[in-house]
Amino acid sequence: MTQPSDSASSPRRVLVIGAGTSGNAAAILLRRAGIDVDLVEVASDGNAAVGSGITLQGNALRVLRELGVWEQVRREGYAFDEVGITIPDGTVLHVQKDIRTGGDDLPATLGMQRPRLQQILLGAVRASGADLRLGVTAEALVQDPHGVTVDFSDGRTSRYDLVIAADGLNSRTRAAIGIAQKPEPTGMAIWRVAAPRPLQVTRTDLAYGGRCYIAGYCPTSESTLYAYLVEGCHHRTSLDPASYAARMRDLAAGYGGVWPQIAKSITDEAMVNYTWFDRLLVEGSWHRGRVVLVGDAAHACPPTLAQGAAMSLEDALVLAELLTSRETWDGQLLQEYYERRIARVRPVVDASVQLGQWQLDGVRDADVPGLIGRTLSPLKERP
């Protein structure tokens, strides 16, 4: 395995593969330090129209503030500090304060339309001066002791000091550098949809049980929310995308409260997203030579703790801090990045999977509040 090594006097140039949350964050932070950054994304629209909603915990908001986009996010999202637990008919059993993992000066949680967050981040990438190329993939990476030569699908070939692979759960780059680990299904799947926000929805409410394992929703703006229903996995070949809206309406019919209002708006199959829950945690290191993984390319877990975006953003922050504060970029630096992150990511991945497994196993006396508290409380510390 080649090990990166260079000096501060050498010109620094970085390629980021994937303009998702972690890739955008890495590009912004490295450009702020004066490093030349190319960012390539396979989606021609930069994924700016994909997804329904996203729940951002306080530690995610803390990184967004460091990126300089917090005020935009705050204006366009919907912040709240509580979570409600209901029974399937909509009756509220308990409302509790959520943990402010980003500190007392930030909300515990903010819901947002995922496409809008992506547009804000892409705007910040462009403003940073990074070279953003959409509809482009890295086709071949050739490493040597001094750098990486990359051939792109648009016919260009360029040379870099470091490549950051932020190309998601099914990362092609991860496989290309010889990391064999792949995401593994946990046995659950989630239906998601964006919908108008009933005025009484001012926080996340979760119903456990009924026709699904979880039925929940999160306000994403003054006028929108996203709703989700978690059930057991179906083989994708058994689900006709033309039936997605009807399937989600049928599942939603088992729930009361605001669910009948939500269900009426589920009419467009293209707006309904169906995804399996997966677990991934790359062990040992997140780099091979001069190529390093961030975000979902390195780790992923069910959204039961709503920490996926936060962990990805923190990856970008920690890696950028190391790269911009050290004279030498080498294997020791990249291993330090891994060791700092694995200690923080592993408990989140394990707890997120455990919360779902308890439901799959029908465990009724599980210490859910205790596990959530033990996992989230340490995240109040800066990564």
Keywords:
eight-stranded mixed beta sheet; FAD/NAD(P)-binding domain; single chain; globular; 2 domains; D-Amino Acid Oxidase, Chain A, domain 2; six-stranded mixed beta sheet; about 375 residues; alpha+beta; about 30% helix
What topology emerges from the helices and strands here?
Layout: E1 13-17, H1 21-32, E2 36-41, E3 53-57, H2 58-67, H3 70-76, E4 78-80, E5 82-86, E6 92-97, E7 109-113, H4 114-128, E8 131-134, E9 138-144, E10 147-152, E11 157-160, E12 162-165, H5 172-176, E13 184-196, E14 204-208, E15 214-219, E16 224-232, H6 244-252, H7 259-264, E17 272-281, E18 287-288, E19 291-293, E20 299-300, H8 308-325, H9 331-360, H10 368-376
Parallel strand pairs: 1-2, 1-12, 2-8, 5-14, 12-19
Antiparallel strand pairs: 3-7, 4-7, 5-6, 9-10, 10-11, 13-16, 13-17, 14-15, 15-16, 17-20, 18-19
Helix pairs in contact: 1-4, 1-8, 2-8, 8-9, 9-10
Structure description:
There is one protein chain. This protein is α+β, with helices and mostly antiparallel strands and 383 residues long. The chain has 2 domains: 13-82 and 111-183 and 279-380, 3-Layer(bba) Sandwich (FAD/NAD(P)-binding domain); 185-277, D-Amino Acid Oxidase, Chain A, domain 2 (2-Layer Sandwich), CATH 3.30.9.30. 32% of the residues lie in helices and 29% in strands. It has helices spanning 21-32, 58-67, 70-76, 114-128, 172-176, 244-252, 259-264, 308-325, 331-360, 368-376, and strands at 13-17, 36-41, 53-57, 78-80, 82-86, 92-97, 109-113, 131-134, 138-144, 147-152, 157-160, 162-165, 184-196, 204-208, 214-219, 224-232, 272-281, 287-288, 291-293, 299-300. It starts with 12 loop residues before the first strand and ends in a 7-residue tail after the last helix. The mean pLDDT is 94.
